[in-house]
Design brief:
By secondary structure, the chain is an all-alpha fold. The chain is 87% helix and 0% strand. It has a domain of 103 residues.
Length: 150
């Protein structure tokens, strides 16, 4: 009994691919643009995270130092009230300062993100315009070639 052999479609697919050439330039440019944008967004996020971590650490160290004054033994009972009142007042002021600093970090991230998105939109528009122009030029060239052949 003869064994059936599977047909090798490699040549057929290669011929089909050659008949419909695809210019991957636009796709490659889109990938490069996307990767560059992703890198820029990552930098914004990482910078914000580092700054926020520094602010949190500074706030924690200041708070711990202030708690030390409250934890000290006092000579008079009224001194405990004064120490706690001083701590609460200083902590409220420090909290307001640190919250303002965190707000500045958020504002900076927001501004940088908007700038990146606007620049990305411009880049994407330019890439799309170039791709459409190239496709139009290619089609016009193919039409001329077909017209001459006919």
């Amino acid at each position: 009994m003869a064994k059936a052999q599977a047909q090798d479609f490699t040549k057929i697919f290669q011929d089909m691919a050659a008949a419909f050439p695809v210019d991957m330039t636009a796709y490659n440019e889109a990938l490069k643009t996307s990767a560059a944008l992703s890198e820029k967004f990552s930098k914004v996020a990482l910078d914000a995270a580092a700054t926020s971590t520094d602010l949190s650490s500074k706030f924690a160290k200041e708070t711990i130092a202030k708690v030390g004054t409250v934890a000290k033994a006092q000579k008079e009972p009224a001194d405990y009230t004064k120490a706690f009142t001083d701590f609460a007042s200083a902590q409220a002021e420090s909290t307001a300062e640190h919250m303002a600093a965190f707000a500045e970090v958020a504002k900076k991230v927001q501004m940088e993100t908007v700038e990146l998105l606007m620049a990305a939109g411009k880049d994407i528009q330019e890439d799309a315009t170039a791709a459409v122009k190239k496709a139009t030029d290619d089609l016009a060239a193919q039409a001329k070639k077909a017209a001459k052949a006919a």
